[in-house]
Fold each of these.
Amino acid sequence: MLFHSILFYVFAAIMFGAALGVVFSRNPVHSVMLLVLTFFNAAVLWLMAEAEFLAIVLVLVYVGAVMVLFLFVVMMLDVNVEAAKRGLTRYAPFGIAIALLMVVELMQLIWLRSQVGDTVGGFVPNPEGYSNTKALGSVLYTEHVYAFEIAAVILLLAIIAAITLTMRKRPGLKVQNIAKQVGVRAKDRIRVVKMDAEKKS
Amino acid sequence: MADFFAGLVPGFVWDIWNSLPPLVQYLTVTVWKILFLTIGVILIVAFSTYFERKVIGSMQARVGPNRVGPLGLLQPFADVIKLLIKEVIVPSQSSKFLFVVAPLLSLTPALATWAVIPLNNWYVIADINAGLLYVLALTSVGVYGVILAGWATNSKYALLGAMRSAAQIVAYEIAMGFALVGVLMASGSLNLGAIVEAQSGGFSQWFLLPLLPLFVVYWISGVAETNRAPFDVAEGESEIVAGFHVEYSGVAFAVFFLAEYANMVLISTLTAIFFLGGWASPFEGWTFLNDISWLAWLTVGGLPWLFAKMCLFMYTFFWLRATFPRYRYDQIMRLGWKVFIPVTIVWIAVEGAMAWFHIGPWSGLSA
């Protein structure tokens, strides 16, 4: 158990440091990479709490997809570091207020849990052969199927909205007709002419 | 696994081993497994460069490397030594830390994914339940090496290559993930060992035929994910010199090279596991083979079968490279988003409907 605690504090410390780095780093690309590190450590902490599915999905979705797009956008931007620094001091009060609110919420949750179950015994390890993914899937598609479907529809709506916002017809835009390009045969473009050899005069 | 080693070592060694505490036993076994697997993968990578040059050579009516060692077999080692003694040049305006870290970021996921891959019925480093998700998660992390290399170099060619590669990898990852959903539905498990077990019983039980569209999508997406020809626009020598690794030299370039080939080996092995029954023998259940003494080994599954299937796909990689011209960039995007993703979604729906109505090989699934 001591080993477990040491690991927890090591990963938590790295995560904390990386999260601070995200805010204070001067370079936006470094910030994004530190955020990736934060997510990785969060995933490790979840693994230690035996939430394998959530941990792997965190890496898959956030590290593998969302942060790649972030990096993509940040690399394209020509960010003025000085302007960003001015923003930091201006938005700091809001940030602190939100952080405090989240701390209060977490404390409430912990307090609620302490009222319901025992906190002294700690966390009971899952039995051998217990599959986190299976357990999650079997409630997600039965008990919570409506919530799940509604969430899916909302996400779909967001995708369609994003595409509609960026799809505007510009005048004079040249677009290829792929089907036509693929359908081209040699005889449409070249004509083979048979002719006799000419005599040198 | 225990009975495999029991015959190999003398009894007293076995007694000492059994007296060790379980944690020590576990750590020793795991470290040795990791060591053997990593060395194996690196050796396969080394010889696949030789294999590639020989295959492409023969397709282009050349002999390929034949100077270093018998038949040129020591060529990979000569190449590695040459790369190791070259100087690593770091461009002056680059982001130095990320420039050095980028090759490692592309190599680490390529090697770490091997942790969940079963080589035979006992050789797997981490036999976890969510193995397939782990594979998806780690293969999606590999793109960071490419993007960071392109950005840290501070060169427009490298950045262009990184952008192309990132867009391509993100696009094809979705099709790959969907193709794996089909495998997951057919096998009923996320554990790679269980996926192989679900395909046991010979060639007819493999997912290759029932999931043929998904197999084609997965394999082509795999070629695109590894940035190999005909999808190698990330490197596109003819227009952006060498893409994301244009400024890399010496060991740093060697690490990128290693990562690319390790990824190819990985994709080949994964395709073999998901669609060709992994380490299972194609002749399993052909009982008449057992009566012929010199053919009986054909029905036994194991690492040689996985290796053979992997080699088949590696050969296909090289074959594709020697055959096809490079895709145009907009056509790559069109193929990924407008062809592969709809194909996989339709086939998943077909598979679901067939499982529901108890038709075909998935009839036992709906339980």
Amino acid sequence: MAALVGKLLHAPDAHFRLAWRAPALTINGRLLTAGVVGAMCWGAAMGSHVGRDHLWITTLKMPLFFLFTLALCFPLMHITLLVSGVRARTSQTLTVALSGISTLAICLGACAPVVGLFCASAPIPSMASYLNLYVLCLACGVVAGVAGLRVLARGMRSLTTSGIKAPLIVWALVYQFVGAQVAWLLRPWIGSSYGVDGYSLSHGLSGNFYMGVWAVLTRWVTELGAMS
Amino acid sequence: MSTELEALGPAASPPPYGREPAAAPRPWVTRWESDTFALTGPLSVGGGLLRAQGAVARDLFNGHGLNTYIAGCTLLMVFASLLYGAILGSVAGAGQVAYAALKFPVVIVGASAICLPSFFVFQALTGARLTFKQALASVLMLGAAAGLILLGCAPIAWFFSVSTTEDSQAFLGLMHAVVITLSTTFGFHFIARTHRYVAWKHGERLFDGRVLALWFALLVLVAAQMASFIGPLDPDRGRVETRRGFFLTALFEV
């Protein structure tokens, strides 16, 4: 497991060369385990801000978030790869996708101790500390996302000699688009916002991420207009 | 001296006057040229459309296995539109699922059937060498390729449908419109590339490019009008209720 993680992080090309020779089930199983562990660490760090039930709920929710998003996006991701001229088997597409997501989750897991410290020591309830933690998590997410994309690109390149720009962009956009709504469904993450303690599916099912963003933007514009 | 020249062989003849030397094929053409695909039955057609588009284009041009392609593409098109129709209907509750699942294939298959004669006649008029069976297979391939993208997007569309509350109908409508537009565009893209590939490989026109583009616009208009008439996207519509009116008027009402 440690060897696989090491190779995935510092020599993704060698990782994929090895992956295409090894049994797909073994490789994908290991990647899945590494990703789940990384995501759980990150979830625990985020949940430590509120503590109590949030700690273990967020620890479980985070790998669920990554895997559920992947399950929803996978058919479209595989079709995108095929029509872009990358003649990959389903198991190979899964290996590439899991490699990217596991890298992302491992990077987040590596940031977890730092984020955990800030989350556990930030005052609560405080909107300012909530926003600061939000920005910190966002910054970690961006760095981890770039690392994940880099591995995804290497994985696609190991399968074809033709261009991979289009499928890579489609994968990133589709995963982000669906992931935002899955995150909305599984909220809250850092805090116990909207007066919800723990997790409630009915709360998650209320509204829609994109409509929520639209409502916030509209409110800002209205308030700015009212102020000026 | 003359012996040395003879040993070199005949001098390369210059290109004919006014004719440009053939350009190097684009990467996708090279890829299509190397595609191989064994058509084993109607259920294997989807795999061919995804993995070996070049081989499918060659089969279409040569008329190989057209009956199997027609059967496979019809199955794929109907199944994909049935599934996506059910997802469209799921927004309005369980009662609407079955009706939307039936209405959406009627829109897709109906629009294709209505536009097929015009496709064949206008292609033939502009000098394209196309039999009616090839025309039918081409239209169905466009629908099947679009259906594959619909199938790929189906889990995402379903998830947004079940996780979005009723006050976000505009968002869902927009999302479904984007998905349907993308899938249809992919279907057209496949047929347009088939045309360019055949032109490159055989120097012949399977289709006329301009007629193809115009016909595609007609297909979109017909599908929009059928959707407006039958209403699989309208959750307020009665189960078998049709509504007369031009689709643009209905669109502006939304």
